[in-house]
Amino acid sequence: MADQLAHKRAKPWGLEWRSSVNYLTFVVSLGIGTDTLVYSLPVAVIPFQLDRWGYTDLSSRTGWLMFAFAFGICIGTVLAAWISERYNTRRLPMLAGMVALIGSIIMFMLAPTYAVLVVARVLQGLASAIIWTVGVALICDAVPPNRVGQQMGTALVGLSVGSVAGPPIGGALYAKYGFYAPFYFGIALAVLDLLTRLLVIEPQDARKWLEDEEQHGDPESQPTSEGASEEKQLEVVAPAPEGATILVAAPAIAEQKSPRPILEMLSHRLTWVGAFNMVAYGMVGPSLNATLPLRLWDVFGFDSTFVGLIYIAIVVPSCFSGILSGRLADKWGSKWIAVLYFGAAIPWYGLLIIPSLPLDIVGLAFQSFFLSGTVSPIMRDFFTVAMEIKGVGFAHVYAIFNMAYAIGKSHRSPTKTSSND
């Protein structure tokens, strides 16, 4: 009895909801959204600020900032995956990533020169890698395979909302209150995100408390070691109710770590397929970020506020495409869903060469919907790799995912210039 009372006193407040699938997905989605928003806040204003500082070659310098961000991602993914899997923790790296993100915002905001802007973008890329890699791995820890695509699509709503909110908010705040205003907003949002992360209880920790509760409540119901093993295997594939805490997500992965996870992953076909698809997505998806503001400035004479509003047409449709494609991938598999979405995105780029604002908006909206829908099936492929290769953790596979995305984002040559250069 004394043991039971001591256990109850030590039980964390709000254990069930703080470790639930819905809350973990919300936290990861908020983190992805915050990271994306902080990255995109200055997208619409960087060329104008560089021009105000007297710099030339605006498109080239914007491109170098994108490259610096991707370089930081490549460094951060390796670090995040190693720490997260080596010490079997998600919460601490997630907190460290958000603190690093806040630091990068302050550095970017106070940068006196372009060189410091580049360093700040590298730090932000490192923080972004941690937020993405560890956050997605946390979802995988809590979600059974038959729901991973849907849950990934839900988490990616943060990507869409952050992308659509960043440019218009950044443009409006910059136009009305000056260069610092967008960054104050980003810092406030990052602090809020940090607070939600402090409440997270990892599934592996919640599992101990919930299992102990069951054992203390009914000692005769404790399974034998053989029965427990069989029960865990069933729990891996069993569907879970919305918001429920998943006691066991992938025990086979957590029991033994591979000494050579990269080599193990590279032997799996889906690793190469998923990496290639993310490189392609990274090359196509963010390629408009460095050039679209300048094109709208040159062709239509839009200032930073109107440039930000145009981004709404790009990203709003993608808020729904990830959830839909994730559900379809869970039901029918990832392969043809990804092919369908990639293929459907291609024709809409043809409208972008026509100097007509209505056609440009329509083209941007549809290409955004279909292109964004490719990510959930790709993420599900990486989940499959982790499940099928013994000893490879979720942070390992999503480190490859992140690095492939960073390589794709950094493809753009930083030597191109705009007509105003």
TrEMBL record:
GO cellular-component term (any): membrane
Name of the protein this chain belongs to: MFS general substrate transporter
PROSITE patterns linked to this entry: MFS
Keyword hit for NADP: no
Alphabetized Pfam families for the sequence: MFS_1
Region annotation (Disordered) ranges: 212-234
Record keywords: Membrane, Transmembrane, Transmembrane helix, Transport
Residues covered by the Major facilitator superfamily (MFS) profile domain: 21-421
Domain of life (superkingdom): Eukaryota
Chain ranges passing through the membrane: 21-44, 64-83, 95-117, 123-143, 155-175, 181-200, 266-284, 304-324, 336-355
InterPro entries xref list: MFS (IPR011701), MFS_dom (IPR020846), MFS_trans_sf (IPR036259), MFS_Vesicular_Transporter (IPR050930)
Molecular function as annotated in GO: transmembrane transporter activity
